[in-house]
C-alpha cells in the first residue's frame, strides 16, 4: 500500500511539474505591429507624373508591357499610362493595386502574403476593394502617405513591384 501511495504521489508530481514546465515554455504573445502611417497632403500631378515616368522607364528597361497608375490618398486616379501591347487587364490591375496600397496603407503584397498563408489569412478576400497581388506600393513624403503607385500586366507581382518601386524611389 505504501508503495502504491508513493507511486501515485510521484506520478502526480511528474504530471504537475510537466504542466508547469509546459506553461513556462509557452511562447510569448506576438508584439503588436507598429501603427500605420498617417495620411499627408495628396500627391500632386507633378509628383505623380514623375513617379509614373520613372516606373515606365523601369518597365521599358525590363522589356515589360505594363499599366501604371498613381492615385491620391483616397485611391482616386491622378496619373495613368498604359504601354502598347500590354495585356487588357493591365489597366484594372494597376489601378486596383494602387487603390489597395493607398486605402489600406500597406503594399498590396501584404495581402498576397496573408492569403498565401492560408487559414485566417484568407479572410482578406472578404474585404471590399482589396487586391491580393503584389505591385501596389504606398508613396510616402515626410513620413506620411501622399498616394500610391500600382503596376499591373507583367508576368508576376515580383516584377510589377520592382517597376512600382522605381516610381516610389524617383520621389525620394
Description:
The chain is of the alpha+beta class. The protein has a single domain (45-169), classed as Beta-Lactamase. It contains five helices and four strands; from the N terminus they run ααββααββα. The chain has a four-stranded antiparallel sheet with strand order 2-1-4-3. Strand 3 (136-141) and strand 4 form a beta hairpin. The radius of gyration is 25 Å and the shape is globular. It starts with a helix and ends with a helix. Mean pLDDT is 88; it is low at 13-17.
Brief digest:
This protein is 45% helix and 15% strand.
Key structural traits:
single chain, about 170 residues, alpha+beta, Beta-Lactamase, four-stranded antiparallel beta sheet, 5 helices, globular
Amino acid at each position: 500500500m505504501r508503495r502504491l501511495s508513493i507511486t501515485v504521489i510521484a506520478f502526480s508530481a511528474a504530471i504537475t511539474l510537466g504542466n508547469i514546465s509546459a506553461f513556462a515554455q509557452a511562447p510569448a504573445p506576438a508584439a503588436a505591429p507598429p501603427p500605420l502611417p498617417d495620411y499627408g497632403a495628396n500627391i500632386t500631378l507633378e509628383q505623380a507624373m514623375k513617379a509614373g515616368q520613372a516606373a515606365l522607364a523601369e518597365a521599358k528597361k525590363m522589356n515589360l508591357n505594363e499599366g501604371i497608375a498613381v492615385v491620391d490618398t483616397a485611391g482616386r486616379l491622378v496619373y495613368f499610362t498604359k504601354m502598347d501591347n500590354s495585356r487588357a487587364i493591365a489597366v484594372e490591375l494597376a489601378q486596383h493595386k494602387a487603390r489597395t496600397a493607398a486605402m489600406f496603407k500597406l503594399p498590396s503584397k501584404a495581402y498576397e502574403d496573408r492569403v498565401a498563408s492560408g487559414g485566417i489569412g484568407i479572410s482578406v478576400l472578404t474585404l471590399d476593394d482589396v487586391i491580393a497581388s503584389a505591385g501596389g506600393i504606398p508613396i510616402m513624403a515626410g513620413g506620411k502617405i501622399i498616394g500610391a503607385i500600382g503596376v499591373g500586366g507583367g508576368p508576376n507581382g515580383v516584377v510589377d513591384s520592382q517597376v512600382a518601386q522605381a516610381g516610389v524611389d524617383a520621389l525620394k
